């Protein structure tokens, strides 16, 4: 697996607070993705990046923003967390040559109370 | 956007039997079809994939078959073992597209 580290692994926060999740990769993969996983919904794309400072929205981007200032780091920010954002968040990466083959991080369990 | 559906949502099989999961998609331009396996509490991992110019691909006990005309592809697991118990996700994408569209997953339970 690609060296992908997500932090934190678990977080509990209160409604209305800002939250930032971090994804760090050591494989120099060009593409990085944030997904959320909820029962009955599978994996849904929030945002993705195709290079430093190049990002685009996925299917469930409302309430989330991202930043990628370095190849290795992709940050996901919930500006004002809501209970509907309680979920497991996965970061994934794809290399330039075979970007469709995704490598996933271990996930972050986020609970918004 | 791309509509990806998986059936059945849950599949129980006796150890040693075969399991087949089907995935249907809507975009005829789709050309890459992977399957991911996610064990309980773990990350999804790519187990096999196929491109549109190939009809079937095998890797030991797993295989994927593609029917482009009917817009569906299937995961076949033979001689199932308890470690095959997991959720399996199919996904699709098309050339030039930077994102995968995932199905909602199939729960496979292998009964010892």
Architecture overview:
The complex is a heterodimer of chains A (113) and B (112). By secondary structure, chain A is an all-beta fold. Chain A contains no helices and eleven strands. In chain A, strands 2, 4, 5, 6, 9, 10 and 11 form a seven-stranded mixed β-sheet that branches. In chain A, strand 4 (31-38) and strand 5 form a beta hairpin. The relative contact order of chain A is 0.33. In chain B, a hairpin with a 2-residue loop joins strand 6 (56-59) and strand 7 (62-67). Chain B has strands at 4-7, 10-14, 19-25, 30-38, 45-51, 56-59, 62-67, 72-77, 86-94, 101-102, 106-111. Chain B is an all-beta fold and 112 residues long. Chain B is 0% helix and 58% strand. In chain B, strands 2, 4, 5, 9, 10 and 11 form a six-stranded mixed β-sheet that branches. Chain B has a five-stranded antiparallel β-sheet with strand order 1-3-8-7-6, with no helix packed on it. Chain B is globular. Chain B contains no helices and eleven strands. The N and C termini of chain B lie far apart (40 Å).
- The residue ranges of chain B in which pLDDT falls below 50 over 5 or more consecutive positions are none
Largest sheet of chain B: 6 strands, mixed
Instruction: Give the number of DSSP strands of chain B.
Output: 11
Reported for the largest beta sheet of chain A, the result is: 7 strands, mixed
The dominant shape of chain A is globular
Q: Determine the fraction of residues in helical runs of chain B and give it as a percent range.
A: under 10%
Radius of gyration of chain B: 13 Å
Radius of gyration of chain A from the CA trace?
Answer: 13 Å
Mean pLDDT of chain B: 93
Q: Structural class from helices and strands of chain B? A: mainly beta
The count of strands of chain A amounts to: 11
What's the overall average pLDDT of chain A, rounded?
94
Strand coverage percent of chain B: over 45%
Calculate the terminal CA-CA distance of chain A, rounded to whole Å.
33 Å
Q: What is the tally of helical segments of chain B?
A: 0
Report the order of strands and helices of chain B. Answer: EEEEEEEEEEE
Q: Oligomeric state of the chains?
A: heterodimer
């Amino acid at each position: 697996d690609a060296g992908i580290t997500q932090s934190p692994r678990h977080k509990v926060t209160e409604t209305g607070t800002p939250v930032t999740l971090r994804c760090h990769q050591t494989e120099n993969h060009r593409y990085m993705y944030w997904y959320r996983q909820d029962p009955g919904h599978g994996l849904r794309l929030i945002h993705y990046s195709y290079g430093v400072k190049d990002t685009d929205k996925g299917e469930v981007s409302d309430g989330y923003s991202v930043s990628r200032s370095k190849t290795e780091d992709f940050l996901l920010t919930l500006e004002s967390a809501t209970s509907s954002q309680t979920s497991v968040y996965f970061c994934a990466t794809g290399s330039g040559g075979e970007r469709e083959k995704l490598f996933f991080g271990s996930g972050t369990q986020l609970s918004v109370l | 956007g791309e509509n990806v559906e998986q059936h059945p949502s849950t599949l129980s099989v006796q150890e040693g039997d075969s399991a087949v999961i089907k995935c249907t998609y809507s975009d005829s331009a789709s050309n890459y079809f992977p399957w991911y396996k996610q064990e309980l509490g773990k990350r999804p991992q790519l187990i096999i994939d196929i491109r549109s110019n190939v009809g079937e691909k095998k890797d030991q006990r797993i295989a994927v078959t593609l029917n482009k005309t009917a817009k569906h592809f299937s995961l076949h697991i033979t001689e199932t073992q308890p470690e095959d118990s997991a959720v399996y996700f199919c996904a699709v994408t098309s050339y030039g597209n930077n994102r995968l569209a995932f199905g909602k997953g199939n729960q496979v339970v292998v009964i010892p």
